[in-house]
Design goal:
Blueprint (H helix, E strand, L loop, with lengths): L1 H66 L10 E3 L18 E2 L5 E2 L9 H5 L5 E3 L7
Antiparallel strand pairs: 1-4, 2-3
Bound molecules: iron/sulfur cluster (SF4) (2 copies).
Length: 136
């Protein structure tokens, strides 16, 4: 009789322990999911800022190169926006190897001949003509 009671108590303890473990695991998974989505958001913001920095730096380069007559006035080099998903599709299409890979791909405005081939293949329309210095 005593053994039966003891075994029953042990089973109940194990069940409670297992339930508590499951609850702790679920909370842990929820916390991890929350951290993961905030990291995803931070990364998205960082990429967006990096693309903006790339674009501004490229604009400065274009202005300097134009003032030295190295880029004709009528040539508008292409640039890559934060929408880039780094798929690499554009790279082999560029006839002058102006595209460098990275977290966000970059176009060298001096080398780009504005042929638009990268824009034609980009699945997310991230290759666009440089619009010039922005006031924003
Ligand atoms: S527009 Fe043409 S030259 Fe310029 S980066 Fe794209 S593919 Fe290369
Ligand atoms: S094709 Fe578009 S998305 Fe893919 S690497 Fe080039 S710019 Fe980025």
């Amino acid at each position: 009789m005593f053994m039966t009671v003891l075994i029953s108590v042990l089973v109940v303890i194990l069940l409670i322990h297992s339930m508590l473990n499951r609850t702790a695991m679920r909370r842990c998974n929820e916390d991890i999911d929350e951290i993961r989505s905030s990291l995803f958001e931070l990364r998205r913001n960082a990429r967006s800022k990096q693309a903006e920095i790339n674009r501004r730096l490229a604009e400065i380069r274009v202005l300097i190169l134009r003032s030295h007559g190295k880029i004709p006035e009528n040539r508008v080099p292409f640039t890559i926006t934060a929408d880039c998903i780094a798929c690499g599709t554009c790279v082999p299409e560029c006839p002058v190897n102006a595209i460098a890979d990275g977290d966000i791909y970059e176009i060298d405005p001096e080398t780009c001949i504005a042929c638009k081939k990268c824009a034609d293949v980009c699945p997310v329309h991230a290759c666009i003509p440089m619009t010039g210095p922005s006031k924003s």
